[in-house]
């Protein structure tokens, strides 16, 4: 079968790093880059606790683009195994199940929770993080029944959604109700990233919230706040008009465009003052009670720290790596709380402890959120270079979410 794989080697890495600076398309060169469409063996069940999935849609995530354009920190490399098939946003159907699997029927529609934690790795007793339900923080990501990998889509043994077939542990397989279509299904995983951040860092109804970024994660934060019926005031900083329309559609109260004067406009919405230092960016006195930073760039992180009210909280969802030029003055001067948010694990919904992805599916089933308008582009796998180019150039084609359609 054909799959898009990332296969690290020093020559390919150096070529992509050097040539990619002059011409970004070199990062997806079919022969010289680390990324390639190749014929591979179908992944096999590691043991009888695993399930084989035929992929319907596989999403392109911002973290996938970071990988392809070699923006990831080397600190993440021990938690991968090469070559791996890319893709952790997954909706599909069960095609095979091990003899120890029950309640998962062949042909059933499912989404996959891709985190490879103690349970999926067959590690007992589980590490302390997994035991308390924080399995995205598992400390055994390089051990157990499969090779190192944070997620399906970074492990050489499992396959990924940029291929037609992958395998998942039975604990990772979540049934998709009839009320939830496949386009929502492929968005369960990215929506859960936002949902996890909100569930672990919820604003109160009186809070003023700022969301920085209006890609899939930023829009999903807005959607999660409204689906959970948190009646806070939401302002979103966006780059493009199509993003602003979507932010409003999902429940933002105010949209501010990143153009000249955005600092004053944003400050006015929070009743804050704009002060001028001797040089450099304006200083904001006052701001939001909670800021969800969903971009992970120098400017967006600096804005998050500037626009947070004294004593407030900044939740970092954006994929920041090694970033110079962050001014941390506001963190100590305003005693800000900085909280990272990685993936998803468990949360409370209607008095029950559930996997974050289960909560996401339930919100969709209850018609509290419909994310399908975010899927703007679909490509067959053979067109992976065009798909990646599209996902990397959002303003050109009003792009929100690009997916691979394995039915095409």
Task: Record the SSE blueprint.
Blueprint: E1 2-6, H1 10-22, E2 35-39, E3 50-59, H2 62-68, E4 84-85, E5 90-97, E6 109-112, H3 118-121, H4 128-131, E7 165-169, E8 173-175, H5 182-185, H6 188-200, E9 208-212, H7 216-227, E10 233-238, H8 241-249, E11 254-257, H9 262-269, E12 273-275, E13 283-285, E14 288-293, H10 298-306, E15 308-316, H11 329-333, E16 337-340, E17 346-349, E18 352-355, H12 356-365, E19 375-379, H13 384-392, E20 401-405
Parallel strand pairs: 9-10, 9-14, 10-11, 14-15, 15-16, 19-20
Antiparallel strand pairs: 1-2, 1-4, 3-5, 3-7, 3-20, 5-6, 6-8, 12-13, 17-18
- According to CATH, the homologous superfamily of the largest domain is Medium-chain alcohol dehydrogenases, catalytic domain
The best one-word shape is globular
Number of separate domains: 2
Radius of gyration using CA atoms only: 21 Å
Spans of at least 5 consecutive residues whose pLDDT stays below 50 are: none
Average pLDDT reading: 96
User: DSSP strand (E) fraction?
Assistant: 15-25%
DSSP, total strands: 20
CATH class of the largest domain: Alpha Beta
SS element count, helices: 13
How many angstroms separate the termini?
15 Å
CATH topology grouping of the largest domain: Quinone Oxidoreductase, Chain A, domain 1
Which CATH architecture of the largest domain? Alpha-Beta Complex
Largest sheet properties: 7 strands, mixed
Helix content: 25-40%
Structural class: alpha/beta
